[in-house]
Amino acid sequence: MRTISEIRAELEQAVERRSELWHELADGHDPAKSAEAARLSSKIEDLWAEARNVQARNRSGAPELIIARARAEERLERESRRKAA
Fold it and tell me: What is the dihedral of CA 21, 23, 24, 26, to 10 degrees?
């Protein structure tokens, strides 16, 4: 898994390149540049999603561990209700 710094660096480069393309496209239509800008927009969305996932994992831990803790808590809660009844 990549670090948030690596993702942000790639995101910054993609945003900068897309901005350059937009400025170039303002001068006139170019199908190749338009396609590259669209591809970069998609890549930027993917990078933001990846960054959010890494931040969530850093904050809360691996999803597998979170699920395991939740299941353990559910078992303990069921057991305590069973004993109280």
Answer: 120
In whole numbers, what is the pLDDT of the chain averaged over residues? 92
Euclidean distance between CA atoms 15 and 73, whole angstroms: 43
How far apart CA 54 and CA 7 sit, in angstroms, is 9
Rounded distance, CA 20 to CA 66, Å? 42
Q: Taking the model in full, what pTM does it have?
A: 0.73
Residue among 22, 14, 20 nearest 40 (CA): 14
CB of 25 closer than 8 Å to CB of 33: yes
Query: Where are the domains positioned within the chain?
Result: 4-84
